[in-house]
Every structure is written in structure tokens, then in C-alpha cells.
Prior knowledge:
By secondary structure, chain A is mainly α. Helices cover about 75% and strands about 0% of the residues of chain A. The termini of chain B are far apart. Chains A and B meet through helix 2, helix 4, helix 5 and helix 7 of A and helix 2, helix 3 and strand 1 of B.
Amino acid sequence: MHESSRTTRxxxxxxxxxxxxxxxxxxxxxxxxxxxxxxxxxxxxAVLTFWALRDPQRVGVGAAFTLGVMLDVGRGAALGQxxxxxxxxxxxxxxxxxxxxxxxxxxxxxxxxxxxxxALALQAAVRLVAGGDWPGWGYFGxxxxxxxxxxxxxxxxxxxxxxxxxxxxxxxxx
Amino acid sequence: xxxxxxxxPNVPRFHRTMSPGQRLxxxxxxxxxxxxxxxxxxxxxxxxxxxxxxxxxxQEAAHWPVxxxxxxxxxxxxxxxxxAENARLRRIEMEDRLRAATLAALEAENTExxxxxxxxxxxxxxxxxxxxxxxxxxxxxxxxxxxxxANAGVRPGLAVVDxxxxxxxxxxxxxLVSEVTLITQRDHAIPVMVQRNGVRGVVxxxxxxxxxxxxxxxxxxxxxDDVLVTSGLDGVFPPGIPVAQVVSVDAGGVFLRIVCRxxxxxxxxxxxxxxxxxxxxxEPGEGS
Lengths: 174, 288
């Protein structure tokens, strides 16, 4: 598990195209109307968190805000609701990146759980104050789903860089 | 050895001029302003529409998986279920035809009487059949999305009904789809009257699937099992559509606490009707 944190330093930076397409894919997933209340993973938030940790130069508060507003429109939520949540998740993840990345995938997921829960709680607070319906506890279940998904997700998103490193990229960096 | 792909010029310039904390503050301020403008003043429909123009193709693509699942589950419904439903529908159709025949006679009679009395003609109804696409993905509200939009003449404010009664109200339209807020949404208000005696009031959604008839003094004559229908006083909803049935009446203080259950099946129905009340044109006798 610790392989991911140790090899970080010799990995080449991810391609911008890859970052954008993973974010787009996650965004698409979040737009699929799934129903059934809660427990569905908020993929845009997860992928944003991942890139905020791994490539803070390119994915930061600005990207989080933009995607958040677009997702709010796409889902018919209150405008700014998800933007607010994403911005805070990304900021906090970047501030703690060094500590979080020191752990393996499961450890990272457990450290990220409070951030994701905060994001959901922020959105709930905003909407309930404005007179929205209580979404039920299942709503917070999506943070737990993200914890369970994180190991697969982070390995999947790192895979192209690992492959490049193994294909000889690491030799030039030694 | 920095950036072998030569990406560094792509780093946004403001990145170097603002600290992360400042950017967070700015973004938070922007998000909160958006929220206040949207939730408190409803002033951002222009922004929303502009962004939806770009998002619409993506959204439509995102509906495909749902459509596949729904259509698939219908395709694989057992023959017995379909036969049972068919039998039920035939029975209902027969009853309805009979009722429609009587209704036509009554309508003619009503028009004639109104003409004799010199009263304005009753409104007319325009109906648009719609199919429920899915529940809106926002967990904080009770809304559904249906497959007809502004292009089909759906407008915000129109009533949406099923065979049993009022389901909701159109709250937002796009060219091809529209969003319907269900009557059970918290604080969604509908002017109603008690069908039995014409006592008027306003019914509010409670957010838990029930409704509450508010602001009626304890003297008001409302009983359990009374049916509430739209009063039409808002000028938007056609009068007489069943809305809810009274479940409990509690005479606590000055006002009655009346809890009701919606009569419609709403969210579970696949086919609904958007109804528009069209004010009568011209003189009373014109249409006959």
C-alpha cells in the first residue's frame, strides 16, 4: 500500500488530458439521475479530492468552484451549494496533503472521511436553513461509499503514471 | 527536472498572486452570494439557463442509462402482470366512457344555463400528456422531471395531475423537459376547499409525504375523511381537482391542526397530465 506514497516522487506529472477526462467522467456519473436516496458515491468530489492531493498546481479551488456550480445547475440543486462544499474539501485536502499521502489508500480514505462528511453537512445545512426537506441519513452514506471506493479509485487514477514509470520513465529521473 | 511535459505555462497566473487562503475566501464568498441570490431571491435563472445551454447535451446523455434500466424493467415485466393491468384498464375505460357521455350532456346543459344567466363561460382546459423520466437528483426537495418542456407548451406554474388527483406544479422548464415540484414538498402551498361544504383554506406540504391544512379556526367544519379539492382561487389551477384526504383533525388552540394524505399516487405513476386553465375568450355564447 505504501508503494503509492514512496513512488510519488519519481512519477511524472499526470497529463492534463487525463485529469480533465477523469473529471469529466466523474461529472457525467454525478449527473445520472439515480434515485433511491443516498449511498451513491459523489464521484466529482472524489476525483477532485484526488487531483487536489496529487496535482495541486492544476486542480485547486478554482476547478472545484467551477465544477460545483456546473453540477448544481445540472442537478437542479441550489446554485452554489456544491461549489461551496467542493471548495472547502479541496482546500482542506491540499493543506493536509503531505500528511494524508503519507498513508496507504485505506488510511487516506479514513483521513478524507471527515472532509467528505463536512461537504455533505455543509450542503444539508444550507438547504435546511432555506426550508428544504430532510434528505434522510442515507444521504450521509455517500461519504462512507467514497471511503470504500477510495483504494480502487486512487489506484485507478495513478495507474497511467505508474505504467509510464515502469516503461522506462523512471530511468531518466534517477 | 521540473515538468517534462512542459505544462508549467498552463498554470493559471492568479495562482502565484493569491495565497490558497485568499482563494478559499474568495470562492466561499462567491458561493455564498450565489446561494443567497438563488435561495432567497430566486434571481439567478438567467445564469442557470446560460449554463444549462452548455450542459443540456451532457444531461441528455446522462439520462440514457436510466432510460435503459426503466425500459428494460418494463420489457421484462411478466405477461401475467401485463394482462392483469390490461383487464383493469379496460374496465376503467368502460366506466370512463359512460361517465364521459353523461359529462358531455351536463357540460352542454351547464353552458346553456350559464348563457341564460348571463354568466361568464367557464374556463377551458388544455392537457399535455407527460411521462415521468426520473426523480430530480436533488435530495433536499421533492421534484420529478417529465419528458415535455417549453417546446410542448409547458410553463412554470401549471398543475400536474394523475387519475387520482393533483400531483404537483411545474416549477422550471427547459425546451424538452420540465421539473415538477410535488405537493408534498415542504411548505408548498395550494389553495383548496373542502369538497363537502366549500370551506376554503390553504394546504401546505410537510415534507414527509403528508400535507397540512392551515389557518382554519377551531369552529371550521372539517372532519376526518373529508376530501380537499383545488379551489381555483389562485387563477392558475383548475378548480375541483382532488388534492388530499383529511387523516386527522386536532383542535388544539385557536386553529385546527389538520393533517391530510395526498389522493394522487404521484411519484409512482409513470404517466401524468399537465393541465392548463385557459380563460374563456369572447362572449359567453360564442363557442356553442
